[in-house]
Amino acid sequence: MVDYLLPLPPVMSLPVIGREGRFPVGRIFCVGRNYAAHAAEMGNEVDREAPFYFLKSPHAVQQSGTVLAYPPGTEDLHHEIELVVAIGAPGFRLARDRAAGVIWGYGAALDMTRRDLQAKAKAKQRPWDLSKDFEGAAVLSALTPAQDFQPLGQRIQLGVNGVTRQDAVISDMVWSIDELIADLSHYYHLTPGDLILTGTPAGVGPVVAGDRLSGGIEGLAPVELRIGPAE
């Protein structure tokens, strides 16, 4: 038995619809600019040669239905609703027609973003870590097993205080789920527990303390969040 000198960090995990066990979360891959309308609203163009990614750490995971204290270091916290793909089998250098075989399930997520810090990083051509990877930056719903959901053209939407801000269909994605999995698997050994956040549609915007966020994808468990005061 290994004697660790410090307490081990907790295993981040998600509930599963219809199951008692929980899904352990490993790496969180996030796809940038995967909806053309969102890229345009941010003043960007879609790179149609290849998708691009950034990562969130497991410490960013927050359960749907909880309260997120307004994060430190920002005055412009934004919401981004996304479809989540959960990986349940190893995958490396996959062809696109084999990508579906590693999918375990699906869910909804809020990719919370410190937009002012992201803008500063972009201006200096620096990584986005401070803006994207912080405690509570990945708010995740319960997962639905893949056999119970088939992603087609379902509506993806988010409301803040009952007012719809984001509203699209997941078929608007520039890069499909199979294309994303195949592409990622040529850079990483995908492993069970990995999550892929597949990008956000147009309509992102700021939230403040007291706001209530509610949204998701038709056929999946919703994702909900309340923004609390800063600590």
Tell me about this structure.
With 231 residues, the protein is mainly beta. The protein has a single domain (21-228), classed as Fumarylacetoacetase-like, C-terminal domain (Fumarylacetoacetate hydrolase, domain 2), CATH 3.90.850.10. 12% of the residues lie in helices and 34% in strands. The protein has helices at residues 36-41, 115-123, 129-132, 177-184, and strands spanning 13-15, 22-24, 28-32, 52-56, 61-63, 66-69, 77-79, 81-87, 103-111, 113-114, 138-140, 144-145, 155-160, 163-169, 195-197, 205-206, 212-217, 223-228. The strands form 4 sheets. Strands 3, 4, 5, 8, 9, 11, 12 and 15 form an 8-stranded mixed sheet that branches. β1 (13-15) and β2 form a beta hairpin. It is globular, with a radius of gyration of 17 Å. The termini are far apart. The mean pLDDT is 96.
For the biggest sheet, the summary is:
8 strands, mixed
Helix tally equals 4
How big a fraction of the residues is strand?
25-35%
Using the CA coordinates, give the radius of gyration: 17 Å
* SSE string: EEEHEEEEEEEHHEEEEHEEEE
Q: Give me the CATH architecture, please.
A: Alpha-Beta Complex
> Which CATH C-level class is it?
Alpha Beta
Secondary structure category: mainly beta
**What value does the average pLDDT take?**
96
Q: Report how far the terminal alpha carbons are from each other.
A: 39 Å
Low-confidence stretches: none
CATH topology: Fumarylacetoacetate hydrolase, domain 2
Give the fraction of residues assigned to helices: 10-25%
Shape annotation: globular
Number of domains: 1
CATH superfamily placement: Fumarylacetoacetase-like, C-terminal domain
Keywords: Hydrolase, Metal-binding
GO molecular function, one term: hydrolase activity
Pfam family, one: FAA_hydrolase
Protein name: Fumarylacetoacetate hydrolase family protein
